[in-house]
Amino acid sequence: MTVVDTSTPTIVLDEVDLQLLGGRLFHDGATSALRHDCSYSGKNSLELCAHRAGKCRLVWEPVELNCHETDFVRFAYKKTSPTSKVGISWTGPDGREFVATDGELNGRQEWTIPNYGDTDFHEVVLSFSEMEHPAAGNKSLPRVDVLRFEF
Question: Which of 59, 31, 54, 35 shows the shortest CA–CA distance to 45?
C-alpha cells in the first residue's frame, strides 16, 4: 500500500514492516509477513494469510499516522482464492470508518473495488472525492488522524 501526499508528492507509507513503525498489531484469524519475493512493485509486500473461514484481518493501531493532506490512497492486492473478499479500512478519532472493499457495503461510506474472479495483481487508487455516500448521514472526507488501520 502507498499513501501519497499530493500537495508535495511524497510517499508516506510504503513497503514498511508495520512492526517497525511502532504501535500495536493484532491478528484476528490470520497471520502476516513482510515478503521479499512477490511484490507488485518495489521490493516488499505485506502478505496476509487467513486461517479460518469467514472474516480474518490484521489490525494496526499506529503511534502516529494521518492523512490530512492526502487526496488518494493507492495499493495493489492479489488473492490466492478468487472467491475471497478484500478490504482495507481506517478509523478516525471520532469513530468514523472509511472502507474500501469488493464485498458488501452495508450502508457505510466507502469505495467499491471491482470483484475480480482471478488470482492476478490488481492496482487500486481510492480518490477521496469519489467515495460513495453512506446510507444515512453526510459524506465526509477521510482526512483524519488514523487511530486504526485494518487489512
Answer: 35
- What's the pLDDT tens digit per position in 47-93? 889 998 888 999 999 988 888 888 888 888 999 888 889 999 999 99
Q: Look up the pTM and report it.
A: 0.82
- The tally of domains found in the chain comes to 1
Alpha-carbon dihedral sign for residues 79, 83, 84, 86: positive
**Residue 119, domain extent:** 2-24+57-150
CB 44 within 8 A of CB 10: no
Beta strands per DSSP E along 6-131? 10-13, 24-28, 30-35, 45-50, 57-61, 70-78, 87-91, 97-101, 110-112, 121-127
What number of CA atoms fall less than 13 Å from residue 111's CA on the CB side?
22
